[in-house]
Amino acid sequence: MSGMIWATDSDGLQTYVSPEWCTFTGQQPGEVLGLGWLDAVHPEDRDHIRMFFLDATASREEFTMRYRLRHTSGRYIWVVDGAVPSFGPPHRTFLGYLGSVVEIAPSASDVLTAFGSKGSFQPPVSRDHEPARSPFDLIADHVLIAHTFAAETDDKEVKRALDLVLRVLRVRLNAAPHEPYGAEGFH
């Protein structure tokens, strides 16, 4: 499973979720918005994760969470979810979070519990560290940030344009070679 990307507004309400989230959970994009994403979190983890997430949003710190997420198969799968706050002008105004979620594969002997940790962001990685595979990886990062800003403006035309760009980037990223981009360094 590739990583699931998401973004919130300054109130911590989900404004964007990548198609991978919907494919994994079976939720429709509109169901995920606001705090609807919590409906896919295991009932035993949901209150803890909701309270932690809202506290992290209030403190505007980067964070990492671990919880069980409902898969379309009906099973709950352990995931790691991490995010960094986004700040912009004027005066470093808090704009929201940009985050990603990946499935983890605990061993049979691991006893896991839901948790959250503020003050540090551990990028969730499903395999060994994956460097950018093409310039499209880097472009996608910036377009996702722009998508978050567009959600703050309520400009539907800009949001539609960015949605289209994200769909095109997804196709390009899926077609990108699996060798790291810029092995000699980024220019």
Can you walk through the features of this model?
This protein has five helices and six strands, in the order ββαααββββαα. The protein is an alpha+beta fold. The chain has a six-stranded antiparallel sheet with strand order 2-1-5-4-3-6, with helices on both faces. Strand 1 (4-8) and strand 2 (14-17) form a beta hairpin. Helix 4 (135-153) runs antiparallel to helix 5 (156-175). The longest helix has 20 residues, at 156-175.
Strand order of the largest sheet: 2-1-5-4-3-6
Task: Give helix and strand order, one letter per element, not per position.
Answer: EEHHHEEEEHH
Oligomer: single chain
For the sheet with most strands, the description reads: 6 strands, antiparallel
Please give the radius of gyration in angstroms. Answer: 17 Å
Ends: how far apart? 30 Å
Global mean pLDDT: 76
Q: Uncertain regions: pLDDT < 50 for 5+ in a row?
A: 121-131, 179-187
Which structural class matches the secondary elements? alpha+beta
CA-based shape: globular
What descriptors fit this protein?
187 residues, six-stranded antiparallel sheet, 36% helix, single chain
Brief digest:
The chain has 187 residues and is an alpha+beta fold. The protein has helices at residues 19-25, 29-32, 43-59, 135-153, 156-175, and strands at residues 4-8, 14-17, 63-70, 76-88, 93-103, 115-118. It is globular and about 40 Å long.
Layout of helices and strands:
Layout: E1 4-8, E2 14-17, H1 19-25, H2 29-32, H3 43-59, E3 63-70, E4 76-88, E5 93-103, E6 115-118, H4 135-153, H5 156-175
Antiparallel strand pairs: 1-2, 1-5, 3-4, 3-6, 4-5
Helix pairs in contact: 4-5
